Amino acid sequence: MIRNSTIARLHESWQGIRAAKDGSTTTIFALAMVPVFGLIGATVDYSRASSMRAAMQNAVDTTALAIATAAPSQTSDQLHSSAESYFNAVFTRPDAQNIHVSATYSAANGTAVVVNASATVKTSFMRVMGLPNISVSASGTAAYGMSRLRVALVLDNTGSMADAGKIGALKTAAKNLIDQLKGSATNNGDVYVSIVPFNKDVNVGAARYAASWIRWTDWDAANGGWQLVSLPSWPDAASAVGVPQWNGTWPSLANPVILAKHDVDDDNRNGDDDNNGKAKKTNTWVPNSHSTWNGCVTDRDQDYDIRNTVPDTGIAATLFPAEQYSTCPVEMMALSYDWMSLKSKIDSMSPNGNTNQSIGLAWGWLSLMQGSPLNAPAEDPNYTYQKIIILLSDGLNTQNRWTTDEPTIDARQQLLCNNINAARVTIYTIQVNTGGDPTSKLLKNCASDTSKWFVLTQANQIVSTFKQIGTNISKLRIAK
Predict the structure, then answer these.
(1) Do 35 and 138 have their domain in common?
(2) From CA 189, how far away is CA 167, in angstroms rounded?
(3) Are 283 and 312 part of one and the same domain?
(4) Domain containing residue 55
(5) pLDDT digits (tens, 9 = 90+) for 137-190
(6) Are residues 277 and 339 in the same domain?
(7) Minimal CA–CA distance to 189: which of 317, 379, 407, 361?
């Protein structure tokens, strides 16, 4: 309609010019109108073509991302068909004609899929100048393999997760995420995932009781029993005055903690200590065998509790204190691409105990690091690595190694969050707030940015939130 009325007005002007007596005026005006008319037409037509090209570019980029994972297993014809079908589904421009789509796959220097598209758009004005169509084209590339993902799932297993269907929704969401991440991997090792269930403690595995990075001081003092142990005989009566002394050494005990001792006359005839050279016995605290440990560890000494410092047997504060926490969560799982085992670990989670987000977050960070204690797989210098932590909790902090004061615990955790973000590890945080708790400023401030912070009010929202996060982090494997 706009085109027809404009042409009609120009035609009327042209007729007026032809009726003019001055032929030179007619000629000059006519010649001047040609470039003006062409400029107006070009502006309108090229604007439409530019809009179409932008839509086409978005479509080829989306198509390349969608078909790249399956490309290695497809023939050329199958790849072309996949590209054409997906492109036509997302590119909805009725003014586009002669659409052509092609796709190529290359395995050199990582998996790469290139999608090319072209089309023509009819002109409205420029056709008068002999240009009835404008050609547009776009190209999109999805290159898998030059970027790799390492993801730590730090998941609340506290008692309150049993309420409102939260633990069930979390298991479904986490297993779905595992499937998403598996789908984004072309080869083994492209994506690794660790799982860190937490409550007040983290369970690093009872089988690790002989690990050099565990500190047993507190555990030995709390787990054991008093035993009568024979001592060597007194040397003579004089030396028995005051602090007892005896010949030889203490009995050989595994990691003894001597809390008290009481001498007993071994002949048990009159109960007195006659110091007559006879062998004596003493009540000695004997810790349980470390093999009876349930695998739980609590926070490291400050300030190692907020750092990823490699444990050093020469510095006791860097070691991880063992604790026989009665509601120890299920054992964590270090980085792996054994997808079935990862999902089995998620299924085994059970809600119990108090909330200490900090220790879960600390072990999530440690699981991404090379070296002791968890020894993440070595990184290939030919690839870039994206390290990500997803922290989900349904409550506020209630207890750590030192206190039950929430503000004090939160202050330590904020320092930990700051250090993780400074190390360029991306943190997603999710508060599942089905019980009307205050919004966690701590979790909001812990997230790497506001787009990575979620507050959920229903358990079923965990599933959709994990799917959204899975989509976002899968795109980190793509270089366009």
Answers:
(1) yes
(2) 29
(3) no
(4) 2-144
(5) 999 887 766 789 999 999 999 999 999 999 999 999 999 999 999 988 888 999
(6) no
(7) 379
Stretches where the chain sits below pLDDT 50 are 1-7, 9-10, 14, 17, 29-30, 32, 36, 234, 236-277, 480
The answer, as to whether pTM is greater than 0.85, is no
Q: Looking at 287, 311, 331, which one is the last position of a domain?
A: 287
Q: CB neighbours of 250 closer than 8 A, spacing ≥ 6?
A: 229, 231, 256, 258
Considering the domain architecture, whether residues 54 and 198 belong to the same structural domain is answered as no
For residues 336 and 312, state if they share a domain. Answer: yes
Q: Are residues 22 and 167 in the same domain?
A: no
Cis peptide before 303 (omega within 30 of 0): yes
Report the domain count for the chain. 3
Write the CA distances from 8 to 4, 11, 19, 108, 126, integer angstroms: 6, 5, 17, 59, 16
Torsion sign over Cα 412, 418, 422, 426: positive
Phi then psi dihedrals of residue 138, to 5 deg: -155, 155
Write the pLDDT tens digit of every residue in 350-372: 999 999 999 999 999 999 999 99
